[in-house]
Design goal:
The protein is an alpha+beta fold and 318 residues long. It has helices spanning 11-28, 33-89, 91-96, 99-104, 278-298, and strands spanning 109-125, 130-134, 147-149, 154-161, 166-170, 177-182, 188-196, 199-206, 216-219, 231-239, 246-253, 262-274. Helix content is 34%, strand content 30%. The strands form 2 sheets. Strands 1-2-5-4-3-12 form a 6-stranded antiparallel barrel. A 6-stranded antiparallel β-barrel has the order 6-7-8-11-10-9.
């Protein structure tokens, strides 16, 4: 007959066994290092594979953030390039206007205007119609007739505006004409499109007109559409046949009409007047005051005049 209550291992025996095992592990810890290293070498590929998803996730997040940052930097650099190119285009015109002299005379010079970078969404280039569609419309203030340029020269003008997009007729379109002048001698003409993005024509120009190959054509400012001084094209061919009433003159547009991606929209009427900085104005004022003081000190001083008066007495007879 089995006993009802089975007596187990005593707690004292368990404690003794635990102490013996602990001492044994402490004594053999250094001797187990080779085994531990071998197990680590065997398990390290598994640990690496376990970390792969996390590493890939971190790498993907970093690559995505880096790409977004590079795209933003690229757009900002492109915008700055367009703005700086637009300013360089007007450098020769501004120099001819002698802005420094006008500023010293206190006359405001319209040096800058509101601008906006737009991206080309669609391009239509065929002999009958040549235009581009931009990603800005009336919501951002675009209006019909607004001039459009790129980093090299005039692209065209806005002819149709919706809420979020706008259509730009390029200078090469057969229905487009723009008043231009030759920078070499200020000869004025009208540049008309021919349906060819690489060529425009100067029509109704007298054969005696002084225009030669290589002349730079810029906007003349006539017509109140395009501001004066923006490059349009360069003359590539001049023909003066006796059997023709006018000279046949062709020019090549400077804008990259065949590979245009970004353009610059200009608001010519929203200009910022140029004024001298305050420190320069103070220097000019001080120089003028010193000049006036020097002029006053060098002027001959009037000499005092001595006058004698004779007393007048009147005798009254009593």
């Amino acid at each position: 007959m089995k006993p009802i209550f089975v007596r187990g291992v005593s707690s004292q025996f368990r404690l003794t066994l635990a102490i013996i095992l602990s001492v044994a592990l402490l004594m053999t810890n250094n001797r187990l290092d080779p085994i531990r290293q071998s197990l680590s070498s065997v398990l390290s590929p598994l640990q690496y594979l376990a970390n792969v998803p996390g590493v890939m996730l971190d790498w993907s997040a970093e690559a995505f953030a880096t790409r977004n940052m590079l795209e933003l930097q690229n757009k900002e650099l492109l915008r700055q390039q367009l703005v700086m190119s637009e300013r360089l285009q007007r450098f020769e015109h501004v120099r001819q206007e002698n802005e420094r002299l006008r500023a010293l005379l206190g006359s405001p010079v319209h040096m800058d205007s509101r601008k906006m970078v737009a991206e080309v969404m669609e391009v239509a280039s065929d002999p009958f119609r040549q235009f581009v569609v931009l990603n800005h419309g009336s919501q951002t203030g675009i209006y019909v007739g607004q001039p459009v340029v790129d980093a090299q020269g005039v692209v065209g003008q806005v002819v149709e505006v919706s809420e979020f997009t706008s259509r730009v007729l390029m200078v090469s379109d057969t229905t487009h004409g723009i008043p231009v002048r030759v920078t070499r001698n200020d000869v004025r003409a009208i540049a008309n499109g021919m349906g060819d993005i690489d060529q425009i024509e100067l029509r109704h120009v007298a054969k005696s007109t002084d225009i030669i190959v290589g002349d730079l054509l810029v906007t003349s400012g006539l017509g109140n559409r395009f501001p004066e001084g923006y490059p349009v094209a360069r003359v590539i061919s001049v023909s003066r046949d006796d059997g023709q009433s006018y000279a046949v003159i062709y020019a090549q547009p400077l804008a990259a009409l065949d590979r245009i991606r970004y353009v610059l929209l200009i608001w010519p009427d929203e200009t910022k007047p140029f004024t001298l900085p305050n420190d320069v104005q103070e220097l000019i004022k001080e120089a003028a005051d010193k000049a006036a003081a020097t002029a006053n000190s060098s002027a001959p001083q009037p000499q005092p005049v001595e006058t004698t008066t004779t007393p007048v007495t009147s005798e009254v007879n009593q």
